[in-house]
Design a protein that fits this description.
single chain, 111 residues, 5 helices, 57% helix
Length: 111
């Protein structure tokens, strides 16, 4: 599980760097670390941020964990970046689909 989290952290950190996102120099916790706590809570702890924060507060993973309130504020500041991978995947799909062919689902579903 640690290796998965570190891999996802590396991807988020590279993604934030590629869109020219910079954290304030005085920040104790990077934006990528805050996003990793949220993703870990979603994937492994049933969206319980408190459990994820407690579990990730390790010297190897997130040595400077923010408090509950500060973490919530920080997460709200970077929430819009969670959609970034989907936008990038959509662009890759659009660029690789030369003929601009799409599939519409027209199968009727009884309500």
């Amino acid at each position: 599980m640690d290796d998965e989290i570190l891999t996802i952290y590396g991807l988020w950190d590279d993604l934030l760097t590629s869109v020219n996102h910079h954290d304030h120099p005085d920040c104790l916790m990077s934006s990528a670390e805050a996003m990793i706590v949220a993703l870990t809570a979603t994937l492994y702890f049933g969206r319980n941020y408190a459990l994820a924060r407690r579990w990730l507060h390790k010297p190897r993973l997130t040595p400077a964990m923010l408090g509950k309130s500060r973490f919530n504020h920080r997460l709200c500041r970077v929430a819009h970046y969670f959609m970034l991978p989907f936008y990038l995947l959509a662009e890759v799909w659009k660029d690789s689909n030369d003929r601009q062919i799409g599939i519409n689902d027209t199968f009727p579903v009884p309500v």
